[in-house]
Design brief:
Layout lengths: L1 H31 L1 H5 L13 H20 L4 H12 L8 E3 L12 H9 L18 E12 L2 E11 L5 E12 L5 E9 L5
């Protein structure tokens, strides 16, 4: 009995030491990188419960905006800025945005990087050709799953972009949506990629 009791005490001490070391490592790492990390952290606001209809409406609006940018001609940058401001959560802080065809600078947390991806013309992002300028005639979403918790929704699936020749380009996506207190439904997360080809 005494041996078992002593063994359990030793086990608890070892576990507590492990937790303490782990916590110290996390805290020291966050302190070391706090300045670099703080610029890339934003907090999502509270809001009313999001619905599947909210997500579908936001997706339709996003697709319509991509088509509208391609039709806007010289006004494309203005249309893109209006669409980005109303579709994405840039006013809440940096977002998580990894567009489909960006390789050299794949992460675009601010509106400048997003606009460059959609319409090009920014020397900071020389790889950008203006994805929305193709022009696309239609965008349709095929959600594989939509998960909702309070005012947050995460959708994953495929969207299809119809080009001038009528052919569709299939893209995989994950998008995160937040519903704000003023009932806006904004994208805070977007990760797109072309399907894997072995």
């Amino acid at each position: 009995m005494a041996i078992t009791f002593t063994f359990n005490i030793a086990k608890n001490i070892k576990r507590n030491m492990t937790y303490t070391l782990l916590l110290a490592t996390i805290l020291s790492a966050s302190m070391l990188n706090a300045d670099d990390f703080s610029d890339h952290v934003s907090h999502l606001p509270d809001g009313p419960d999001i619905t599947k209809e909210d997500v579908m409406n936001a997706q339709e609006a996003w697709g319509d905006a991509v088509v509208a940018i391609g039709k806007a001609g010289k006004q494309a940058p203005t249309v893109a800025e209006e669409a980005a401001s109303s579709s994405y959560a840039f006013d809440l802080g940096p977002i998580q945005f990894k567009p489909t065809l960006a390789a050299e600078q794949p992460f675009r947390p601010d509106i400048e990087g997003a606009l460059s991806y959609f319409v090009g013309g920014n020397d900071k992002y020389k790889e950008d050709k203006g994805f929305a300028l193709k022009p696309w005639s239609k965008v349709r979403f095929d959600n594989h799953t939509v998960t909702m918790q309070n005012n947050i929704a995460i959708a994953m699936g495929h969207y299809y972009f119809t080009g001038p020749d009528g052919n569709e380009t299939k893209v995989e996506y994950t998008k995160g949506y937040v519903k704000t207190t003023d009932n806006r439904v904004l994208i805070f997360l977007q990760d797109s990629s072309l399907p894997y080809q072995p």
